[in-house]
Amino acid sequence: MKLVIVGLGGQGVLFLTRVLSETARMLGHSLAGAETHGMSQRGGSVVSHLKVNEHGGPLVRPGTADILLALDPDEAYKALGYLRDGGVGFVNSGRADFPRPEIAARLAERGIELHTLNADAIAMQLGSPALANTVLLGFALGHPAFPFGYEAVEETLTRVSKARFREANLHALAEGYAHFRPGESAGGKGALEHTIQPEGTGEEQ
Amino acid sequence: MEKVLLGNEAIGRGLVEAGCRVMTAYPGTPSSEILPAVVQFKKELELDDLYVEWSTNEKVAFEVALAASWSGLRAAVAMKQVGLNVASDALTSAAYAGVAGGFLVIAADDPGPHSSQTEQDSRMYAMLAKVPALDPATPREAKEMVRAAFELSEAFQIPVMLRPTVRVCHGFQNVPLEDVPPPTGKANFRKERRWVATPRGRYFAHVELNEKLQKIQATFATSPLNRIPNGHGRYRFGIVAGGVCYPTIVELLAEAGLSDEVPVCKVGTPYPLPVEAIMDFVSRCDHVLVLEETDAVIELQLPDRRNVAGRLNGAAPGAGELTPEVIYRVLCDQLRQAGVADLPAGEDEVLQALVGELELPPRPPRLCPGCGHRSAFYAIRRGSRKAILPSDIGCYTLGINLRAVDTILDMGASISMAAGFYHAHRVSGTQRPIVATIGDSTFVHAGLPALANAVHTGARFVLVILDNRVTAMTGFQPTVDSDQLADDGGGVQVALEDLVRACGVRWLRVVDPYEIPDMIQLVKEAHEYTQQPDGGVAVIIARRPCVLYQREAITPQPVKVDEACDGCRYCLVAFECPALVMNSETGRVEIDRRICVDCGECVDACYKGLIVPVISGQ
How far A184 CA lies from chain B's nearest CA (Å)? Predict the structure, then answer.
């Protein structure tokens, strides 16, 4: 399972990466990945790679990602190339013209699903624009292809959030989830919790 | 027990597990998280016998740690690749002198580059200084190599370089943790002739160093840090890979179903390269592709390259990071040319073309909303038109977005180059105002010798020290001006004002850059001082805590854009705050409330007076 998380410096890409990698570890998976640190954290493009039960290097090769989480629509466009045929993308966007029709058509040809949510607007309603990342994560958790289920992520989020942000983060997660699955209570397991077994073969990395 | 660790954290853990007793560093991406990890484990495990220090620069850090090694303790120093330039004087001499306790030089490279002024390969410095270099492929291996490096260092009495690249440093992985042994041994400096560098002694030291390297090369031939396919099998195509290129190529070959057909030789010890063992493998392959970052260090050491492709013959690009997509393209080309396999294209070119047509704006990094540097740069531009603006390494490099930065070379160069610009113009009979900018940490790192030099030689320019109280770009490490040490409080504060005056500067003012009109006035006064008969270097310390570090230092002053805004874009260009955005529908500038920090500084950035404070209750 390969995930790519993109956004702009300051949007909380690193936090999402931590939540997901910690969830994978808690569930007993082997993982590898890479983060962006340094100058790009000052508002530049930030890309995180996360590989669960995969062998090899830390980076996801374009054309092979199962999941894309994008906190910004322009950064999403730049990162769409990471998705494999049949991959799924979740994008924070309030733009009426996202994705452009010609791009949506190409993605459809390849069986790629793109789900958009105006997570910024929801986060503002929740009282803090900084919550958009957690809102988008909750949204993605509603999709059956997402590797982890709501409960597992909720547990990690409770643990890794700073005390003063914990409640707001959990609320944002629930709010995002409700936008993907309106009317359903949060719950369920993710794709990696019952379908994919850790592989134990090959070159140990 | 296992934990998810960044490569840098794994290195920090490795240092603690290996009984390192003194660890020093100067921050710099991608190395900055190594020392904080050591501090974290020190606190968790209550390792009172472990000394850690953020030093003022890499050379200082190197020498402090080396003295611990010469006292018999295990010691390590960490830096980024360009930091090794600063510490190289110490490195090359230390190689000749040797060590007593194990001594580890961690130099983190930045192929890309992502956050550096060069892409230089620190393994080249290992060759230059004649010290062994280890090149980890993963965070887990980086931790294992720390222990191996200490053992090697002690066995051969030589400094050892650990050279992770950015994808190891900022890669993460489940890493097994081992117990941390209680500290053993006491520092006991023994007087020996080899500690004193004299030309005659150093000739013999050099002979001895060469002998050490030969022995180390022999041990590397059978070292588990390398995986050299042995036996007598012949192959049509083989790969030699170092660092993070190794797991990447293994993965690509597995995906292509070529794992059995194409053997991979893993090199963890690029210098001195176990040439004989690797040439045995190379000679059993019809074609060989060498993959390594960032320059051709393995490749250069192969004595016969007739069947070898890599960076040197252009098969792999001569610059930039070897990402999976780049390696895949190189692999496809080479396999096709060798007639081994024809792999499918790796990327969706149709999608790439469609995205390309969108002409998405590039997203360069920018100074944060509320950053005091922005106000300072704005004031400098207003107060000194037509000035030459040398600047320096740090967040404020981003002053280029405000057109307030004309040159960036290396740490400390703003001051020496300001002096150089002055002398060059003066000697040829011309005059230009000059305003140099440098951060507080960079000033102490390499600006002090430059400032003393400038004052002594009679240079005339304005120097603005952008003092945000921390080393901000790399993660808020403390500077000498604070009482914070790497692991605790209790540091002796060294005031910037005292340092400036001690360099002989006679005109010094301190200002809060948020007071833009005051600062514009000061910049003008400073320039006037440089023009006086007895004038010289005028220094302004623009002091305002980093907004990310001390958000509470801002007194909230919400602003709004008046509806009379005509969209002239002056504020967008001249003030360049990410929270000021053009609404293409209304044609007016708006405040992006998601990121605005209510600093109120942009009130000064609309000369028409249309960015106005919101009076409470309004």
Answer: 29
DSSP, collapsed to helix, strand or coil, labels residue A86 as strand
Number of domains in chain B: 4
| Residue B339, strand partner residues | none
The tokens of B248 are what? Answer: 């990447």
Could you give the count of Cα atoms lying within 13 Å of B318 in the half-sphere of its Cβ?
3
Q: Is B258 exposed, middle or buried (0-12, 13-18, 19+ CB in 10 A)?
A: middle
Q: Do B597 and B507 reside in the same domain of the chain? A: no
Q: How confident is the model at residue A204 (pLDDT cuts 50, 70, 90)?
A: very low
Which residues sit opposite A91 in a β-bridge?
A: A70, A116
Cis, bond preceding B30 (omega within 30 deg of 0): yes
- Does residue B38 fall inside a structural domain? yes
Contact status of B247 with chain A (Cβ, < 8 Å)? yes
Q: Are residues B448 and B568 in the same domain?
A: no
Q: Which of residues 45-74 of A touch B (CB under 8 A)?
A: 45, 54-64, 74
Statement: the pTM of the whole predicted model exceeds 0.80: yes
Domain A2-194 has CATH 2.60.120.200: no
* Domain positions in chain A: 2-194
Alpha-carbon distance A170 to A174, whole Å?
Answer: 6
B464, B389 Cβ separation under 8 angstroms: no
Name the residue among A69, A93, A54 with its Cα closest to residue A15.
Answer: A69
Residue B12 CA, distance from chain mean position: 17
Confidence of residue B345 (pLDDT cuts 50, 70, 90): confident
Cross-chain Cβ contact A38/B594 below 8 Å: no
Give the domain extent around B241: 235-337
